[in-house]
Write a structure and sequence with these properties.
heterodimer, A: 559 residues, mainly alpha, two-stranded antiparallel sheet, 22 helices, 69% helix, B: 142 residues, 2 domains
Chain lengths: 559, 142
C-alpha cells in the first residue's frame, strides 16, 4: 500500500489521461473540447500537489519500491512537480489554441496527460527497463502531438522528423543499456554503478561505449549540440503549445535522468577530470551547445526558432552544471549533483513555457507564421501578452530581478565553487555566451514594442485558460526571482538525492513491503537476477574481465 | 581497444567474407552471364500469370490502425497467459493474495477503456466505411 501512496503522483497523471479519454468519448463528437484541457490541468496539478505533499510529509518516500525499480525521493518529487506544472500549463494553452488552428479532436488532451505521465515515470525510474518505458510513453505521445495539426505540412514534417530522430535516439539508449547489462549483469542504476566503479570494468570498452550511447540518446532529448538538428524544425512546425511542452517537460525530464544516470553510474571522484572522463564529454557538449545555440540564435528571424536555439544554449549552461559535480555533500561516492542544476531547470522551464505560451496565444485564425515581423507591435495590440512575453524572454536572458538571473547566478557560482582553479574558464565562457544571447532576446522585445508589422500581424486569441497559464508563469518568474530562497532550498534538497546512494539500495532488500512478507521470493522476478546468461566456455576468459563480479557470484551454468 | 573485443574479430571476418561472396557472385554474373532479355523475362514474377496491377499501390491507412490494435490485444494475451499459469500460486496469502485478482482486473480495465475509446471514435468501423466509400466512388464514376 505504501508503494501506491509513494507512487501516487505518477499514477494520478496516468489516471488523468484515462479520465480525459473517457470524457472525450462521452462528450460526443460535435462539442467544444476545451473543458478537457481544464480537467487535464487539474489532474496534473493534483499530481504535482501529491508530489509536494509526499515531499513535505515524506518519511518513507526515499525508499526504493516496485521491486526496487522506482525511487521517489526529493529529486523525483522536485522534477515531478516541475513537469506537472509545465504539463498543466501546456494543456491550458491548447484549450483555445487548437480550435483556432482548426484542430477539433479531443485526443490531444489525453496524449498530453500520457506524455506527462511518461516523463514522470522517466524521472523516478531507477531501472533501465522502466526508464525506457517512461521514455517511450513520453516520446510516442509527443510524436503524435507534434503532428496533431493534420492540415499543416509543417506540423506533419515536425512529426516525421521528431519520430525518425527520436526512434534513432531510443535505439541508442537501448544499445547503451544493453552494453551496460553486458558489462555488469544488471539493469539497476545502483548495481550497475557499483559494479563499474568497483571493478576494472570502469576503464573497460563496454562501459565506455555504453556511456557514449546513453549520452547521445539523452543528448537528443535535451537538445544538446551535436544532437540538436531536429530542435528548431520541430519546435517551429509543431503546434505552439506542444513546442512549449517539448521545450519544458522533455528537457527537464531529460536532464533529470541524464544527471542521475551519469552521477550514479559513472560518478567517481574522477568524474570530471580530463577530456576522456564522463564529465569531460559533458563539458565539450556544454561548450559547443552554448556557442552554437547562441550564434545560430542571432541569425534567426522566426521567434519559435529563436526560442528553440535559446533552449539549445540553455542545455549548454545546464550541462556545465552537470559536469561540475558538487563537493562535500552526502552522496554515494562523496560527490553530488551540482545544486544549481535543478534550480536552473526550474527557472528555464517557467520562462520558456511562458514565452512559448504567449506565442501560442498569437496563433489565431490558423496563423502559423511566427516571424519577428508578425509579432511586431504586440505591445500596442495586447499590452498584457507583450508584458508576459517580455518578462519570460528577459528571464531567459538572465536580467535581474527575474528568476532567470537567480538561476544563472546560483548555477555559475556553484560551478565555480566546485573547482575554482579550472572552472573559472568555463564560467567566463558561459557568461560571455549569456551576453551574446542578450542580442536575440532583446530583438524580440524590440519588435514587440518599437516596430510596426509590415505584413500580416499574428491574430491574438482571446483565451482565459491560456492567459491564466502564461500569467501564472510570469508571476512565478517575478515572485521567485525576488524571493528565491524556498526554491533554492528545495533544489538543494533535491540535488542531495540525485546520486542514488549505494548504502540505501544495499539496505533496500531488508525493507519490508506490505504485499510480500519476505522480500526473497520477489528476487527471482528481477531481470538482473535471472540466471539466464548462457556463456560459451571458450569466451569466459575474455568476458570475465568485464563481468568478474557477477560470474564469481553465481557461476556460469555448465553446458 | 581492449582484449574483450577479440571475439568480435571473427564476426567481422564472417561479415566481410559473406558480403564479399555475395558481391563476387553479382559481379561475376554481370560480367560473364549471357544476356538475352525478353518482355516476359523483364516483367515482375507473378506465379506464371500475367501481371495485372502495379505492386506500388497506396494501402488504406486503416490497415496500420488495425495492425496497431492487433498488437495491443496481442500483448494483452501475452501478459495474461503467464498470470493465468501462476494464478493459483499468486492467490496464496504468502504471495499476492486477492490483490492478484485486482491487479489483473486493473490491467484488463485499462485496456478495456482503450478498446471503448477506439470503438467510440469509430476506428473499428473501417470495413463498413470502406464499402460505402467505394460504392460512392463507383457511383461517381458512372
Amino acid at each position: 500500500m505504501s508503494d501506491i501512496i509513494a507512487f501516487s503522483p505518477v499514477l494520478l497523471a496516468a489516471i488523468t489521461g484515462l479520465i480525459v479519454m473517457v470524457l472525450d468519448l462521452l462528450s460526443g463528437k460535435n462539442t467544444h473540447k476545451g473543458f478537457l484541457g481544464w480537467v487535464t490541468a487539474v489532474g496534473l496539478l493534483a499530481s504535482g500537489t501529491a508530489a509536494c505533499l509526499l515531499w513535505v510529509g515524506g518519511r518513507e518516500i526515499s525508499l526504493p519500491f516496485m521491486v526496487g525499480m522506482v525511487q521517489f525521493d526529493t529529486y523525483g518529487a522536485f522534477f515531478v512537480t516541475l513537469i506537472a506544472i509545465a504539463g498543466a500549463a501546456s494543456s491550458l494553452l491548447i484549450v483555445d489554441h487548437n480550435p483556432e488552428q482548426g484542430i477539433h479532436d479531443g485526443a490531444t488532451y489525453p496524449l498530453v496527460a500520457f506524455a506527462t505521465f511518461g516523463a514522470m515515470l522517466f524521472v523516478v525510474a531507477t531501472d533501465m527497463i522502466l526508464l525506457f518505458l517512461g521514455l517511450e510513453i513520453m516520446s510516442l505521445a509527443l510524436y503524435v502531438l507534434a503532428a496533431s495539426k493534420q492540415t499543416s505540412p509543417f506540423s506533419m514534417e515536425a512529426g516525421v522528423k521528431y519520430f525518425l530522430l527520436g526512434a534513432l535516439a531510443s535505439g541508442f539508449f537501448l544499445f547503451g543499456a544493453a552494453f551496460l547489462y553486458g558489462a555488469t549483469g544488471s539493469l539497476d542504476f545502483v548495481t550497475v554503478g557499483r559494479t563499474i566503479q568497483d571493478a576494472a570494468a570502469h576503464g573497460s570498452g563496454l562501459s565506455k561505449v555504453a556511456l557514449v550511447m546513453i549520452i547521445a540518446a539523452l543528448g537528443f532529448k535535451i537538445a544538446a549540440v551535436p544532437f540538436h538538428f531536429w530542435t528548431p524544425d520541430v519546435y517551429e512546425g509543431s503546434p505552439t503549445p506542444i513546442s512549449a511542452f517539448m521545450a519544458g517537460v522533455v528537457k527537464a525530464a531529460g536532464f533529470a535522468v541524464l544527471a542521475r544516470m551519469m552521477l550514479t553510474i559513472w560518478g567517481t571522484a574522477e568524474f570530471s577530470s580530463g577530456w576522456q572522463s564522463p564529465g569531460g564529454i559533458l563539458l565539450i557538449l556544454a561548450v559547443i551547445s552554448m556557442v552554437v545555440g547562441n550564434i545560430m540564435g542571432i541569425v534567426q528571424d522566426n521567434v519559435k526558432r529563436i526560442l528553440a536555439y535559446s533552449s539549445i544554449s540553455h542545455a549548454g549552461y545546464i550541462l556545465l552544471g552537470v559536469y561540475a559535480i558538487g563537493l562535500g555533500e552526502p552522496g554515494a561516492v562523496g560527490i553530488s549533483l551540482n545544486s544549481g542544476v535543478p534550480f536552473y531547470l526550474l527557472t528555464y522551464v517557467l520562462a520558456t513555457v511562458g514565452a512559448f505560451g504567449v506565442l501560442a496565444l498569437m496563433g489565431g485564425q490558423g496563423h502559423e507564421d511566427m516571424s519577428l515581423d508578425s509579432i511586431a507591435g504586440l505591445g500596442k495590440r495586447s499590452p498584457i501578452l507583450a508584458l508576459i512575453l517580455t518578462i519570460s524572454v528577459l528571464s531567459l536572458a538572465g536580467i535581474p530581478p527575474l528568476l532567470g538571473f537567480m538561476g544563472k547566478f546560483v548555477l555559475f557560482k556553484q560551478v565555480l565553487l566546485a573547482d575554482p582553479d579550472r572552472n573559472w574558464v568555463w564560467v567566463v565562457v558561459a557568461v560571455l555566451n549569456s551576453l551574446v544571447a542578450l542580442y536575440y532576446y532583446l530583438r524580440i522585445v524590440l519588435y514587440v514594442y518599437f516596430r510596426e508589422p509590415e505584413g500580416e500581424a499574428a491574430p491574438i486569441i482571446k483565451s482565459n485558460a491560456g492567459l491564466f497559464a502564461v500569467s501564472t508563469m510570469a508571476v512565478l518568474v517575478l515572485l521567485l526571482g525576488v524571493f528565491p530562497g524556498k526554491a533554492i532550498d528545495a533544489s538543494n534538497q533535491a540535488s542531495h538525492h540525485a546520486v542514488l546512494s549505494i548504502t540505501e539500495a544495499q539496505a533496500a532488500p531488508a525493507v519490508q513491503q506490505e504485499s510480500a512478507p519476505t522480500p526473497e521470493p520477489k528476487q527471482p522476478l528481477r531481470l538482473r537476477q535471472v540466471d539466464g546468461l548462457k556463456v560459451d566456455p571458450s569466451h569466459i576468459p575474455i568476458i570475465r574481465r568485464a563481468m568478474e563480479l557477477k560470474l564469481r557470484d553465481s557461476g556460469p551454468k555448465p553446458k | 581497444m581492449g582484449s574483450e573485443f577479440l571475439p568480435y574479430v571473427a564476426i567481422i571476418i564472417t561479415i566481410v567474407v559473406a558480403v564479399g561472396i555475395a558481391l563476387a557472385i553479382l559481379v561475376l554474373n554481370a560480367v560473364l552471364g549471357p544476356k538475352r532479355p525478353s518482355e516476359a523475362k523483364m516483367g515482375p514474377f507473378e506465379c506464371g500469370s500475367d501481371v495485372v496491377d502495379t505492386p506500388r499501390k497506396r494501402i488504406n491507412v486503416r490497415f496500420y490502425a488495425v495492425a496497431i490494435f492487433f498488437v495491443v490485444f496481442d500483448i494483452e494475451a501475452l501478459f495474461l497467459i503467464p498470470i493465468a499459469v501462476a494464478y493459483r500460486d499468486l492467490l496464496q496469502p504468502q504471495h499476492l493474495g486477492v490483490f492478484a485478482l485486482f491487479a489483473l482486473l486493473l490491467f484488463i480495465g485499462v485496456l478495456a477503456i482503450g478498446l471503448w475509446y477506439v470503438w467510440g471514435k469509430g476506428a473499428l468501423d473501417w470495413a463498413f466505411d470502406a464499402l460505402t466509400s467505394s460504392a460512392a466512388r463507383s457511383d461517381a464514376n458512372e
